[in-house]
């Protein structure tokens, strides 16, 4: 299986399966002499970790990260620092229940990657989906923690802005609320509504989708390159690579198709000797290059495919069957996609920072 790597100068390769002994990543291209500890990485993994509320899968994984290479400490460094060598990060799986999947080993779950993996490789890991599982994203979050260390001064924050058909009220937006509810939403009123709404979805054995918004503040102008190295191009690719993501937009995104040229254009004035944009429909990127405004990305996460409701499908033997998936699953996998989206934003920005520095100094 190829195509397990992402990035150019800052490059991440993930490995491992949902029900294997461990998963992790190798981060290549990290500059030397950057302070880095496992605790710094762990803080972001704890945000993504399952089993922290009734609204996520009850699989109990501590997601404890180990740094196996690429970091060195002695009396002269004053603490662990990167060496410039590949950084290997490993997270052990400790709470697999593979028996939950025994009944579907020869059945293809609708909406899942079972059929396509079988068609391409002639073999598939039916225990939680193997590489197609959202569990793989733990490695991305770990890599994103390293990426953040490369781009100091840039603040990356994500939030859930829609669950099913229900959108937050943006006039209630408060970043301080994101870490004070189980949905990572910036609207406290919407968070209360989501509790009852998702409880109903969860108790029915079903699932629901979500929209996640990720913002990067402090990105200077000039990152990205035309025509095939656009910053928004790589961000779209990064978010689309996350399992269960089915749509990505930058700035106003699809809504820009409804705007006039006058409404869509982000007008500019000089303020304190610097250009200042009067709006941000472009999402902080023009011509593939950052403008200095906030970089804003949204992505849509589909409902979890593993549900208790029987669905029509086929078996590996070509028979018509009904499929009902047991086990522990997220009623809204979009919730835990928030820290994953933040990580992918960080990985792209770290890569583009290094590319920019390499080209223009």
Key phrases:
361 residues, alpha+beta, 7 helices, five-stranded antiparallel β-sheet, single chain, 18 strands
Give the SSE map.
Blueprint: E1 5-6, E2 11-16, E3 22-28, H1 38-48, E4 65-69, E5 71-72, E6 81-82, E7 87-92, H2 114-121, H3 137-150, E8 155-163, E9 166-167, H4 188-203, E10 210-217, H5 231-240, E11 245-250, H6 261-264, E12 268-271, E13 274-277, E14 285-286, E15 289-290, E16 295-301, E17 311-314, E18 320-323, H7 337-360
Quick overview:
The chain is α+β, with helices and mostly antiparallel strands. 24% of the residues lie in helices and 23% in strands.
* Number of E strands: 18
Beta-strand residue fraction? 15-25%
Shape assignment: globular
Order of helices and strands: EEEHEEEEHHEEHEHEHEEEEEEEH
Q: What share of the residues lie within helices?
A: 10-25%
Tell me about the biggest sheet?
5 strands, antiparallel
Spans with pLDDT under 50 lasting ≥5 residues?
none
**What is the spatial order of strands in the main beta sheet?**
1-2-3-7-4
Quickly give the structural class. alpha+beta
How far from one another are the termini?
37 Å
């Amino acid at each position: 299986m190829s195509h397990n790597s992402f990035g150019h100068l800052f490059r991440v390769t993930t490995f491992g399966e949902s029900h294997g002994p461990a998963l992790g990543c190798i981060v290549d291209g990290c500059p030397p002499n950057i302070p880095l500890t496992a605790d710094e990485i762990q803080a972001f993994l704890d945000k993504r970790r399952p089993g922290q509320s009734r609204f996520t899968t009850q699989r109990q994984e501590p997601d404890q990260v180990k740094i196996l290479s690429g970091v060195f400490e002695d009396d002269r460094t004053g603490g662990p620092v990167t060496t410039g060598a590949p950084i290997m990060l490993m997270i052990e799986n400790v709470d697999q229940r593979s028996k939950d999947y025994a009944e579907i080993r020869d059945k293809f779950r609708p909406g899942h990657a079972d059929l396509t993996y079988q068609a391409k490789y002639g073999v598939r890991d039916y225990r939680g989906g193997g590489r197609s599982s959202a569990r793989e994203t733990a490695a991305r979050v770990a890599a994103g923690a390293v990426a953040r260390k490369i781009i100091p001064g840039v603040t990356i924050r994500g939030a859930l802005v829609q669950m099913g058909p229900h959108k937050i009220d943006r006039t209630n937006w408060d970043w301080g609320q994101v870490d004070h509810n189980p949905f990572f939403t910036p609207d406290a009123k919407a968070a209360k509504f989501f509790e009852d709404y998702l409880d109903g979805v969860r108790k029915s054995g079903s699932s629901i989708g979500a929209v996640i918004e990720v913002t990067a503040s402090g990105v200077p102008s000039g990152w990205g390159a035309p025509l095939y190295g656009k910053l928004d191009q790589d961000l779209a690719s990064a978010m689309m690579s996350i399992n269960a993501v089915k749509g990505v937009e930058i700035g106003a995104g699809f809504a820009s198709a409804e705007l006039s040229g006058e409404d869509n254009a982000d007008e500019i004035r000089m303020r304190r000797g610097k250009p200042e944009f009067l709006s941000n429909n472009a999402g902080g990127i023009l011509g593939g290059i950052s403008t200095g405004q906030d970089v804003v990305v949204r992505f849509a996460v589909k409902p979890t495919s593993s549900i208790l409701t029987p669905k029509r499908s086929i078996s590996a033997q070509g028979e018509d069957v009904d499929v009902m998936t047991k086990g522990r699953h997220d009623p809204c996998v979009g919730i835990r996609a928030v820290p994953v989206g933040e990580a992918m934003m960080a990985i792209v920005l770290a890569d583009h920072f290094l590319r920019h520095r390499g080209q223009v100094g």
